[in-house]
Amino acid sequence: MNMFQKPKIAVIGAGMIGGNLAYMAAKKGLGDIVLFDIVEGLPQGKALDILETTPIEKINSNLIGTNNYEDIKDADVIIITAGIPRKPGMSRDDLLSTNAKIMAQVAENVKRYAPNSYVIVISNPLDAMVYLFYKISGFHKNRVMGMAGILDASRFRAFIALETGISVESISAFVLGGHGDSMVPLPRYSYVGGVPLPHFPGMTSEKIESIVERTRKGGGEIVALLKTGSAFYAPAASAMAMTESIIRDQKKVFPAAVYCEGEYGYNDLFIGLPAVFGGNGMEKIIEIELEPNEKEALDKSAAAVESLKENLKTLNFIT
Ligand code: APR
């Protein structure tokens, strides 16, 4: 990017999340947007539709849709949503072999055409998909991250707001671990108006347990309602917040799937941990004190992610 060029954002997969991502990025004026998909006409149609909102919305972004990977050349940020979503009754892990094939193809092309990009993976099963991208691309760990924790934390915040009647803006929440049923919402590090959740008036341990459970199953709740696919507005908004923090060097802290080299005792593993996101991508993992039961839950979640990694080896996607 030269001094006067807008950032270039490429969205791979122009489905439900991809289309919303492109629209949100345009509305935020984050840069020029390239929407890629293998389905002919789909990214072109969505990009043109969004472009036609720009006069009304006063947006100065260019948008193109494409089926040609060359068009993502030199993108600054790449967001990967390619893959199939789950249907009722499926877990995210059931998507592994189908989406791994797709991710392998995407990673080869991103490596070829946008070797200096920052990459945010959304495709599920998230922790395994971001690991696979990392391995195939060979990108530095600061350039590769998975969107999950920010979404899980946003769901946690929304449910706390519904329970307390307090504005979501006065609520913060913390979720660690893999993006699956073993994720670890941490009430002790979640706050309502600056008060730790367990100390908030009227907040019983039963209420906290039910909010935590709803958070863990938040994705499944939407899948059961939609029946034809999975959540897309909140996942797109979550990835957009990460993208904005990188492009505008905001240095916000979000939980996200990040590559561990010893942090929290994990090695060669992507798992949801709090990290700083800024102009250098995933800039730093923040290590916090965990109580024994919290660490045990995180270890259980890490073991679940580790077993998906083993499946990727068995299926010959990685060695
Ligand atoms: N290359 C690029 N795009 C692909 C490829 C590929 N090889 N294979 C499929 N796609 C595209 C599809 O054509 C589709 O347009 O990926 C898009 C996925 O969009 P949706 O089916 O609408 O799924 P979405 O809800 O956006 O979810 C995408 O994110 O949250 C995860 O579990 C979810 O893995 C899923 C992904």
How would you describe the overall organization of this protein?
The protein is globular. The chain has 10 helices and 14 strands. Helix 5 (about 125-135) packs across helix 10 (about 290-315). A 6-stranded parallel beta sheet has the order 3-2-1-4-5-6, sandwiched between helices. It has a 3-stranded antiparallel beta sheet with strand order 7-10-11, covered by helices on one side. The two termini are about 35 Å apart. By secondary structure, the chain is of the alpha/beta class. The longest helix is centred in the C-terminal third of the chain and has 23 residues, at about 290-315. The chain folds into 2 domains: about 10-145, 3-Layer(aba) Sandwich (Rossmann fold), CATH 3.40.50.720; about 150-315, L-2-Hydroxyisocaproate Dehydrogenase, Chain A, domain 2 (Alpha-Beta Complex), CATH 3.90.110. Adenosine-5-diphosphoribose binds near residues 17 and 81.
Rounded to the nearest angstrom, the radius of gyration is 19 Å
Q: Oligomeric state of the chains?
A: single chain
Q: What small ligands are held by the chains?
A: adenosine-5-diphosphoribose
**CA-CA gap between termini:** 35 Å
Order of helices and strands: EHEHHEEHEHEHEEEEEHHHEEEH
The helix content is 40-55%
Largest β-sheet summary: 6 strands, parallel
Low-pLDDT stretches are none
Q: Looking at the structure, what is the overall shape?
A: globular
Structural class: alpha/beta
Number of individual domains: 2
What would CATH call the homologous superfamily of the largest domain? Lactate dehydrogenase/glycoside hydrolase, family 4, C-terminal
Based on DSSP secondary structure assignment, what is the total number of beta strands? Answer: 14
Name the beta content range. 15-25%
Mean pLDDT: 96
Continuous helix count: 10
CATH class of the largest domain: Alpha Beta
Query: Do you know the CATH architecture of the largest domain?
Result: Alpha-Beta Complex
Spatial strand arrangement across the major sheet: 3-2-1-4-5-6
